């Protein structure tokens, strides 16, 4: 896996995402195969992963009576950060995750999004090479999700980030590559741009300003032998053999029928469309 970037770990509930994270952390025994992190083999119960791996669980737990600063100092002490470095480290981390102004407030007063950012701060204490985030935005409102996305994006040049999620729209927004898990096995793994190219549909969409024009165009195209026509509301979809051969034919047809002036787009599958195709 690359030493930087955000990599989406996606799959249905029960596919094995959290279990895989626990295997990487050395919290579960590995029954078959081997896992290496930064060249070091992971051994159940014997590997100190805190020096190379940061972990944000799905629902991070905090001591609500503590302030963010005191909580991070406790985590730094547990991680064996030298005492003289702890204060500067905590201030830097709070600044990095956007909590510097509320570092002295009790954690009980924090929103869920603020707690997620504090959870990321504790996962960064030892400057890990690998950051595992288990469903980091699953229970957040849109603003909280945006804040976590921006934070992870700001970190992706410094480390490898693996983010498990069932919110495929989140993966589309922030991930550089995707690892798709189904029934405990990887069914698809590649850069997101490559996946889109591989699963590109052969559909050209004509977008009209009203339903009447769309219907008239669909009826006029229906006799063509080079496309399959479907019309829905103000859109006419043309399923062609290939985009390369079909697009010029659409342009030529429209030139011959100047009464139609639609906007043209090529239908792009969403990550959800691709996921459903792969798992089925």
TrEMBL record:
SUPFAM superfamilies recorded: P-loop containing nucleoside triphosphate hydrolases
GO MF entry, a single one: ATP binding
Range of residues in the leader sequence: none
SMART domains documented for this protein: AAA (SM00382)
Highest taxon of the lineage: Bacteria
Domain ABC transporter: 1-208
Protein name: ABC transporter
InterPro entries: AAA+_ATPase, ABC_transporter-like_ATP-bd, P-loop_NTPase
Family assignment from sequence similarity: Belongs to the ABC transporter superfamily.
Annotated keywords: ATP-binding, Nucleotide-binding, Transport
Lineage: Bacteria, Bacillati, Bacillota, Bacilli, Bacillales
